[in-house]
Amino acid sequence: MSSNTLSTGKKEGYFAWFHELTSKERRTFWSCKIGYALDAMDTQFLSFVIPTLIATWGLTKGDAGLIGTVTLLTSAVGGWLAGILSDRIGRVKTLQITILWFAFFTVLCGFAQNFEQLLVARALMGFGMGGEWTAGAILIGEVIRAKDRGKAVGMVQAGWALGWGMSALLYALMFSILPDEWAWRSLFLLGVLPAIFVIFVRRFVEEPEVFVASQAKAIKAQERASFAAIFSPKMISITVRAVLLTTGAQGGYYAITTWLPTYLKTERHLTVLGTGGYLAMVIVGSYVGYIVSAFLTDYLGRKKNFILFAVGSLCIALAYTRMPVTDGVMLFLGFPLGFFVSGVFSGMGAFLTELFPTEIRGSGQGFSYNMGRAIGSLFPLFIGLSSKSMALGEAIGIFAAVAYGVMIIAALTLPETRGKQLES
To answer: What would the DSSP string read from start to end of 345-413?
Structure first.
C-alpha cells in the first residue's frame, strides 16, 4: 500500500471510483447489473434449446428464426414504451414492471405445448426484455456522478455477458440431469428468478434525485413534456443521429452474430463453432470488451471509444470472412469477436443518457436505442436475400461495413458528452 493511500485513506487503482460510491449508488449499480444479467439469461435460453425443439416438435429453421426475429421486434417496441413510461411513473417503478413482465412470460414459455404458443409467449416476453434495458440504463446513468458515469454504466452493461454465461452453464446442467423434453422446460421455468429479484429492487433502490427534482419542477409549473418533444425542432437532429448510431451498432452486431456461424460451417467447413470452448471464448471476450470499453469511454470520450470499437468490429468481421483460418485459429478469434462486437455497446447507455434532457430522457433514450434495434434486426434479412446473388461472406462484409460506417459517421457528428452534468 502506498504512503499516499495511507495518508488519505482512499482506495487507489482502476476501481477506486467504485469505493467512492454512496450506499444508494451501489445498490442502484448492483440492481441494474443483476437485472441485466437475469435479462440476458432468460433471453439466451432460446438459443440453447432450439436444436431440442427442432427434434421434439419438428420445427424448421425458419420457425426458429421467426421466434428470434419476433422477440427482437417486440423488445424494440417494449424498450420504446418503457422509456415513455419511465418519464411518467419513474425509472425504478418501470424497472420493476419490466423485470416482472419478462420473468412471467419466460416461465410461460416453459409451459408451451406447440410452436404457436411458444411464439406468442416469447413475443410477449420481448416487451419486458427491451423495457428492462431502457429503464436500467436511464436509472444507473442518472444516479452515478458525471466523471464515473461511463465506467459504471458500461460495467452494468457487462452483466449481459454474465447472464449469457449463466444460461450456458444452466443449459449444460439441466441437460445432463434431465431428459431433453423436461430439460428445456426447466430452463424457462428458471425464469422465475428475476421476479424474486424485484423484491430487492422494490425495497432498496430509490429514484434518482435529478429525476425527482425534474418531476417536482414539472408539477409546480403544471406542465409535462410529451414524447413528441424528442421530435421538436430543438431535439430532432439529436434524435435522428442517435438512431443512426444505435442502428449501426446493432445492425453490425446482428449481421455478424446471425450469419457468421452459418458461413464458417457451410463455406469454410469449420467444426469449432458449435463447441463449448468457442462459446466460452466469445462470452469471455464479450465481458472483457464491456469492461475495457467502460473505462475507455470515460478516458477517451464517448465518440472516440465508439469509433475505436466500430473499427475493431469491422476488422474482425473482415478477418473472419477474408482470411484463411483453421479450427485452431478460429477458437482464439472468438475472443476478439466477443470483445469488439459487444464492447461497442458499453458506452451507449451513458451517451444516450447525456444526449437528452431529464424530462424527456426516457422517451429519447428508449426511442433512439430501440428504433436502432428494430432497423438493425433487418440486417440479417438483407444479408440472406443478398446471398442469393453474391457469396455469403461478401454479403456479411458489405453489410457490416455499412453498419459500422453509419455508426462512425453518426458518432463524428454528435456532440461529445463526457463529464456532462445532468440537470433537472
So the answer is: TTTHHHHHHHHS-GGGHHHHHHHHHHHHHHHHTTHHHHHHHHTTTS-HHHHHHHHHHHHHHHHHHHHHH
Q: Output the nine-digit C-alpha cell for 32.
A: 441494474
Q: At CA 204, angle to CA 200 and CA 210, rounded to 5?
A: 130
CB-based burial of residue 89 (10 Å sphere; 0-12 exposed, 13-18 middle, 19+ buried)? middle
Is 153 in contact with 33 (CB distance < 8 Å)? no
User: In 10 A of CB 271, how many CB atoms?
Assistant: 12
Contact criterion met (CB below 8 Å) for 150 and 297:
yes
Helix 91-109 and helix 193-204: axis angle, to 10°?
Answer: 170
In the numeric block, which cell numbers belong to residue 12? 487507489
pLDDT tens-digit series, residues 326-370: 777 777 888 998 999 999 999 999 999 999 998 899 999 999 999
As a whole number of angstroms, the distance between CA 395 and CA 339 comes to 22
Length of the chain in terms of residues written: 424
Each residue's pLDDT tens digit, 358-407? 889 999 999 999 999 989 888 888 888 887 888 888 888 888 899 999 99
Give 103's contacts (C-beta < 8 A, 6+ positions apart): 38, 42, 128, 191, 192, 193, 194, 195, 198
Q: Locate cell 469449420: which residue?
A: 270
φ, ψ (nearest 5 deg) of residue 418: -55, 130
